[in-house]
Amino acid sequence: MRMTGIWAWSGIRSKSFASDSLKKKKLLPVRAMATPSKTPPGSDPKQLERTGTVREIGSQAVWSLSSCKPGFGVDQLRDDNLETYWQSDGSQPHLVNIQFRRKTTVKMLCMYADYKSDESYTPSKISVRVGNNFHNLQEIRQLEMVEPSGWIHIPLLDTVNNPIRTFMIQIAVLANHQNGRDTHMRQIKVYTPVEESSIGKFPRCTTVDFMMYRTIR
């Protein structure tokens, strides 16, 4: 009888624990797995150039790469052709170095990536660093991308939202999609703001003013 009592008591205890466990499970919310949204493409940089507010200055810089496959280097990165690309050929991080001869104002980088074509070669995490030379570069932007297909705009602004002034920019590919080893970049553009000319800031003349000063004496 004693043993029966023990077993009965144990059974009640187990039932109580099971009941508590069920209650706790009912209180836990059911959450679906969140899928990261794809990186939306930016507008074509040519549209920005047509506004007259920025100018592409990549041709004023000296470009170098940490590595490249023969025939897939700087020329392909800067040829205005979205079908060609730079392909690295070494260990990560993969680096693009952009060096100016004088301190230059830079407002934005535009980079073209195409996950549909490049898959595991597509960058998923990049770092942008600036400085006077290789020895004092500092990271100012880090960007994570999810299956990008199009132009990616990267503003380069200081702490008070002014365009940076720098001698050198370095773009570092820290990781690729699907843990890919080498990377593809199809185009990189570098933009400086266009300063408004003092000409054109004069107020327009009224009709009377125009009539008074239209003749050169």
Automatic annotation (TrEMBL):
Subunit annotation: The mammalian APC/C is composed at least of 14 distinct subunits ANAPC1, ANAPC2, CDC27/APC3, ANAPC4, ANAPC5, CDC16/APC6, ANAPC7, CDC23/APC8, ANAPC10, ANAPC11, CDC26/APC12, ANAPC13, ANAPC15 and ANAPC16 that assemble into a complex of at least 19 chains with a combined molecular mass of around 1.2 MDa; APC/C interacts with FZR1 and FBXO5. The C-terminus of APC10 binds to CDC27/APC3. Interacts with PIWIL1; interaction only takes place when PIWIL1 binds piRNA. Interacts with FBXO43; the interaction is direct.
SMART domains per record: APC10
InterPro entries associated with the record: APC10/Doc1, APC_su10/DOC_dom, Galactose-bd-like_sf
Name the UniProt record assigns to this protein: Anaphase-promoting complex subunit 10
UniProt superkingdom: Eukaryota
Organism classification: Eukaryota, Metazoa, Chordata, Craniata, Vertebrata
GO annotation, biological process: anaphase-promoting complex-dependent catabolic process; cell division; protein K11-linked ubiquitination
Task of the protein: Component of the anaphase promoting complex/cyclosome (APC/C), a cell cycle-regulated E3 ubiquitin ligase that controls progression through mitosis and the G1 phase of the cell cycle. The APC/C complex acts by mediating ubiquitination and subsequent degradation of target proteins: it mainly mediates the formation of 'Lys-11'-linked polyubiquitin chains and, to a lower extent, the formation of 'Lys-48'- and 'Lys-63'-linked polyubiquitin chains. The APC/C complex catalyzes assembly of branched 'Lys-11'-/'Lys-48'-linked branched ubiquitin chains on target proteins.
Gene Ontology cellular-component terms listed: anaphase-promoting complex
